[in-house]
């Protein structure tokens, strides 16, 4: 059998981390909110580290619904872009990556966001030629106890307008 | 009652200025009347979502619409103050034009025993809406 020798692990990691940085690292609002992405193979977990500026209810205190919504939207958008560009990225193609555009986004606030770090993972439920549907779940201390979830539709990058 | 000197205007301003995330986004209260609130944010390069075009991230518009909608619930005559978002749906009609102020107007059009229904529209300085939202919020009534 003529099997190709697998790439060294460091080469793979470096390529994937660089591609992820290229997708999410250059967006000012992601940086402003302090959102980072933890990568395990192709699985992404978005992280929103707690910061006082994310508070929407100072009495409880609780995270701002808008900040939570923005976090979910970013997690969904980056997951979709990551899924779209994965094949190109894996075959070594670099270059600018246009982002999918949000068409609509529906947020389900399940419980108030506590003043601590939050995590989100998104699933691309359908990715067509023009449209994609993405579901995203967010939790804080306990993965089974979601504090918010959302579903959004996106316009795929190469078919603007 | 005029929107400019509505008794709830100062309450709304106080409410918004006590929210760290609203301060962070530079939110301003433009008008308040019964169940209706207008808020706006300036264009800010820190909130860009697409560096190629300079268009603000949709999440910023979400935060503005959510705050406007929640404020509209509090500004409703039946509200005793205090609310939380149950559900919010946002439709993005077009990207907001860079370097323009974004203004959201929200109207709380129905209050039941425990739920308030709100719709909100976000505009830049043009004539067509940038985004529209509908939401359900918790409400504490002042007559119970």
Short description:
The complex is a heterodimer of chains A (161) and B (144). Chain A has 161 residues and is of the alpha+beta class.
Describe this structure in words.
The complex is a heterodimer of chains A (161) and B (144). Chain A is α+β, with helices and mostly antiparallel strands. In chain A, the strands form 2 sheets. In chain A, strands 1-2-6-7-8-5 form a 6-stranded antiparallel beta sheet. In chain A, strands 3-4 form a two-stranded antiparallel sheet. Chain A has 3 helices and 8 strands; from the N terminus they run ααββββαββββ. Helices cover 30% and strands 34% of the residues of chain A. By secondary structure, chain B is of the alpha+beta class. Chain B has a 6-stranded antiparallel beta sheet. A two-stranded antiparallel ribbon of chain B has the order 3-4. The A-B interface holds A 26-30, 32-33, 52-58, 62, 64-67, 69-71, 73-74, 96, 98-99, 101-109, 112 and B 18-25, 45-52, 56-60, 62-67, 70, 84-92, 95. Strand 5 (101-109) of chain A pairs antiparallel with strand 5 of chain B.
Instruction: List SSEs of chain A in N-to-C order.
Output: HHEEEEHEEEE
Mean pLDDT of chain B, nearest integer? 92
What's the count of strands of chain A? 8
The name of the CATH topology of chain A is Thiol Ester Dehydrase, Chain A
Keywords:
A: about 160 residues; Thiol Ester Dehydrase, Chain A; 6-stranded antiparallel β-sheet; two-stranded antiparallel sheet; 3 helices; 8 strands; B: about 140 residues; alpha+beta; two-stranded antiparallel ribbon; globular
What's the topology here?
The complex is a heterodimer of chains A (161) and B (144).
Chain A: H1 9-24, H2 28-33, E1 36-40, E2 43-48, E3 55-57, E4 62-63, H3 65-90, E5 101-109, E6 118-127, E7 131-139, E8 146-155
Antiparallel strand pairs in A: 1-2, 2-6, 3-4, 5-8, 6-7, 7-8
Helix pairs in contact in A: 1-3
Chain B: H1 7-17, H2 20-24, E1 28-33, E2 36-41, E3 48-50, E4 55-56, H3 58-74, E5 85-92, E6 102-111, E7 115-123, E8 129-138
Antiparallel strand pairs in B: 1-2, 2-6, 3-4, 5-8, 6-7, 7-8
């Amino acid at each position: 059998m003529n099997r190709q020798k697998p790439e060294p692990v460091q080469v793979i990691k470096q390529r994937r981390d660089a591609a992820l940085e290229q997708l999410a690292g250059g967006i000012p609002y992601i940086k402003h909110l302090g959102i980072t992405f933890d990568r395990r193979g192709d699985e992404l977990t978005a992280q929103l580290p707690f910061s006082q500026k994310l508070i929407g209810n100072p009495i409880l205190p609780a995270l701002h619904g808008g900040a939570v919504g923005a976090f979910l939207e970013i997690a969904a958008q980056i997951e979709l872009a990551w899924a779209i560009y994965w094949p190109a990225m894996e075959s070594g193609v670099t270059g600018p990556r246009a982002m999918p555009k949000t068409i609509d986004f529906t947020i389900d606030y399940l419980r108030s966001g506590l003043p601590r770090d939050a995590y989100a993972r998104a699933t691309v439920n359908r990715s067509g030629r023009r449209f994609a549907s993405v579901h995203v779940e967010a939790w804080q201390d306990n993965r089974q106890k979601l504090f918010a979830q959302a579903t959004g539709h996106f316009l795929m990058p190469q078919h603007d307008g | 009652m005029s929107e400019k000197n509505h008794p709830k205007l100062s309450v709304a301003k106080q409410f918004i200025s006590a929210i760290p995330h609203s301060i962070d986004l530079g939110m301003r209260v433009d008008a308040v009347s019964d169940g209706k609130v207008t808020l706006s944010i300036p264009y800010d390069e820190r909130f860009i979502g697409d560096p190629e075009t300079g268009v603000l991230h949709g999440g910023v518009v979400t935060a503005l619409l959510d705050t406007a909608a929640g404020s509209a619930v509090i500004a409703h005559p039946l509200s005793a103050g205090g609310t939380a978002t149950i559900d919010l749906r946002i439709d993005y009609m077009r990207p907001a034009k860079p370097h323009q102020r974004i203004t959201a107007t929200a109207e709380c059009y129905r209050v039941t025993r425990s739920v308030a229904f709100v719709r909100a529209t976000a505009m830049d300085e043009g004539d067509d809406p940038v985004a529209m939202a509908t939401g359900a919020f918790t409400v504490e009534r002042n007559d119970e």
